[in-house]
Amino acid sequence: MSPPGEVDSFFETATQWPAELQRLRSILRDTPLTEEFKWRGPCYTFDGGNILILGEFKDGCRVTFFQGALLEDAKGLLGEIGENSHAGRLLRFTDVDEIDRAEPALRDFIEQLIAAEKAGLKVEEPERAELDLPDELVDAFGDVAGLEDAWEALTPGRQRGWVLHFADAKKSETRAARIEKAAPKIFEGKGMHDR
Question: What are the backbone angles phi and psi of residue 172, rounded to the nearest 5°?
Fold first, then answer.
């Protein structure tokens, strides 16, 4: 469980969409979900399984469903998270009226995901091509003792996140600098977004 007050603090310090986030919270607290604080935001769980998380962004507040690909969405309300995410789906809101109109669908999505959690359903991982490691990372394996072993100990998702981060740099020098900066976290078994 998260320390008392962290979730409250998130809502109290919201600057861009405070009314919308409060409205979402009032709906979510009227469900069987448990409110916790994870990944710098309010996360809602059922029997320990992550169901959804709230976030505040410039373009609106979001409800992100961790296993959203399991949802039946006849009205087409759910959006994709990004090209590298296959399981999650999201709802974006910019005013309380939108939330009120979407409340029945939101409650239905939550019921579907609770049923999926009870049944032990998970989104199947797609077959992924083997990671194409940047040359700079392969070079670092030879230059930094133990880095390759630390890399191999990372989860596939953490490896993929790092590779996407490294490969996103256009210049070889930038890729090498990113790898050098990332090495301590890799030795700790952490992914790019882990603290």
Answer: -60, -40
CATH number of the domain within which 60 lies: 3.90.1150
pTM: 0.68
**Distance between terminal CA atoms of the chain?**
18
Q: Is 127 a domain residue?
A: no
DSSP-assigned letter for residue 70: G
Structural domain span for residue 156? 135-187
Let me know whether 15 and 51 are in one domain. yes
Are residue 105 and residue 35 in the same domain, yes or no?
A: yes
- Return all residues near 152 (Cβ < 8 A) that are at least 6 apart: none
- Bridge partners of residue 43, in order along the sequence: 36, 53
Q: Give the tens place of pLDDT for each residue, 50-71.
A: 999 999 999 999 999 998 888 9
Angle at 87 between CA 86 and CA 89, to 5 degrees: 100
Q: What is the total count of domains within the chain?
A: 2
